[in-house]
Design a protein that fits this description.
With about 120 residues, the protein is mainly β. The chain is built from 1 helix and 5 strands. The strands form 2 sheets. A 3-stranded antiparallel β-sheet has the order 2-1-4, with no helix packed on it. Strands 3-5 form a two-stranded antiparallel sheet. It starts with 7 loop residues before the first strand and ends in a 5-residue tail after the last strand. About 10% of the residues have low confidence.
Length: about 120
Amino acid sequence: MAQMCHWIVTNITLSSSAAEGEEYVLTPMFDELMSYVPPSPPPKTGYHRYVFALLAPSSSITTAAIDTSSTTITANGLDLKKPKDRPHWGYGKVGKGVRDWAEENKLTVVGANFFYAENEKQ
């Protein structure tokens, strides 16, 4: 399985605003460590799975430390290392990827979701 880094953002914050009588609006703010590259599976390769993983510092993940009411996940002071390349997250080996990068940066998965995409020229 080949993993590709499509996007890394840090310091995720949601701010909300709603004037009286208007719709409630959430505005995401974040810093990009790796700029966004949209899904683009090659033709005739079938479905590709794209995974969104939410990572947090390993050392601060305990049941007592998780605040579900918080709207901020911060990377302040983590000194995250940018992957060397997008394919295989810069490790150059099939099977290497986000888990290796997360471990190297002392991060752990706290949430995930995925979707499938296929090139229209099948």
